Amino acid sequence: MIRSAKVRALCACVALAGCFTLFSARLVHLQVAKHDEYAALAAEKHVNKQIIYARRGLIQDVNQETLAENVPIVTVVADGSMIMDPVAVAEVLAQPLEMREADLAAKLRSDRRYIVLKKKVPATLASTIANRLRVRSLRGVTFEPDEARNYPNGSMLCHVIGFMNSEHDGVQGIEASMNDYLRGHDGFRFTEHDRTGKEIVLYRGQERAARDGCNVRLTVDLNLQHIVETELEDACSKYKPEKAIAILMRPKTGEILALANRPNFDLNDIRNKPADFLQQNAEAMKNSAVIDMIEPGSTFKIVTASAALNERLVSPSTIIFCENGHFNFAGRMLHDHHGYGDLSVDDILMKSSNIGAAKLALRLGDQKFYEYIRRFGFGERTGISLPGEISGVIHPPHKWAKIDITRIAMGHSVGVTPLQSICAMSAIANGGRLMMPQIVREIADDEGNTIATFPPVEIRRVITEEMANEVSNALKNVVSDKGTAALAKVAGFMVAGKTGTAEKINPAGGYFSGKYVVSFIGYLPADNPEFVGLVMLDDAKVSAELNYGGQIAGPIFARIAEKTARYLNLQPELEQPPSNVILTQRER
Amino acid sequence: MPNYHRHNNTVPVAALTRWVIVAFFLGAAGLSYVYFKNQLHASGDEIRNLERQLAEFETQNDVVRAKISQLSSRGYLQKRLAEGFIHMTPITDDRIVRINTTPARANELRRVSNEENVK
Question: Which domains does chain A have, with CATH numbers?
Fold first, then answer.
């Protein structure tokens, strides 16, 4: 009996020990072997990774006037599994969201945990809705923060600023080229919530703060941009060109002071347009100053003349016989607008003689001429911080036909961008030094500390300072009563510049009859240039006898230059005897 | 003769006190734990509310900043100007006087000219 009791007790102990061992084994299995799996399940149920969105940086002009900024908006989202009273929630949301109550209630009856009710709701409105829901103790509606980009100046500088896609990445202009600086880095926070969805702050996990995007400050001055845009708009109303471009640049540093294209578009309209709007209006959205290739026409003669002078093959006074306006070369006739006999090199520029330029190029020879074209920056990207810049087309000499050298000398058979053209003229204005065009001045963090600056970059010396001065002197004569750009004169200032009139290329081959690309590139004050300006109109609708760079682009340049000189407070340099002189005596 | 009955019924005050103190401290520790835990949760809720308020202020700030930029932008001012809300009189050329700012010598007579004269 005693033995039996002992055995029973032992059996009971063994059974109990066995049970505990089994439970222990199961616990070890759950805690060790299955730990990761169950921990993940628990985390999925209670832990959220909350994204802390970084604010996109601002784009500002040189005076820190805002060109692109952010407006907070929200996306209203509902969690169907947490909405107890869909009708009551719909009643609160319907009016502010401008949606039908019945439609909303139907949406909210779903058990789905993520129902997007409305996007792009103003943040202030969202705040009002949240308060109303809180007062009525209604749960299950959240507001996901978002940002909309706002451009206070609408269409002004639109091609330079650019815009963003729905993923908040820049797709055009500075928004695209500086996207890495502007967008910042989103942060995150792991949070736990209770069964009602309320965050348990005590159990916050790993956290990383968002790093806001940097502010990008441009070299563009909005006041100058306004001057340029106004004049360009007036010109477009008057001449109805297919395209128009105007650029202002500081030759000593390469800073772009203003850049405008026509046609243009309103940056704030983009986000409200359908997806195919961009494709349909691609032409208007193209920054033609850096993306379009044109035959520059006679403005290219500065390259020809500079090269010949720099190689000391000619001097400014060297006489070239211009064949009385008809030059037969390689079996093809080259014409001048007027028949000229002997012209000096200065006069070739002043009168814009095609034959004179061709003869200068022939003296240089194919290879040397090609070298100078490349030294002036044609055939390569300038390196400006704008997306999509093209290099243009400059064929190497071994691909030239025999007559090509005479055509290239006057700006035909080459494809260049307007930006390359103004850079080449800037090299002359800057004593022969070619500068890299700059549109971004500095990058600052969200607290205003400068983190990167872009100092002027000299690409290379193209010609000697002495020869640059010689060319500059010749270009002064262009803007005189004897030259082709008498209408580009600016009162009180000596202006240097060159006109260009090129036949418009027909994409189907050859040239359009009666269509021209007219241009003027000039700078002032001629002896100490503060800015270089380019004005270009593609297919201005005027009579053939007026369709010249000096007639159309020259006066536009003069108006822009006059206002710019005033804005920059440039002192008039020309000694023009005033009709009545007021004398003042310095106080003793 | 000793009173065994009385001796057997004596309350062990010292031991009891010890246990009461232990129980008190354990209870106090437990209650403190719960109290502080509640305090932490309450503080957490307060943090969350403050964060929400801060976010709302930041949002309002951004909205106001955007509005200021919009209303002070050149485009908007030009529009208002065109509507005649504000009137600006351009400075006419005959009112502009350019003064040579280069340093003058003592007793030097200086000329002042305006653009009307230049024309």
Answer: 51-192+203-218 (3.90.1310.10), 222-567 (3.40.710.10)
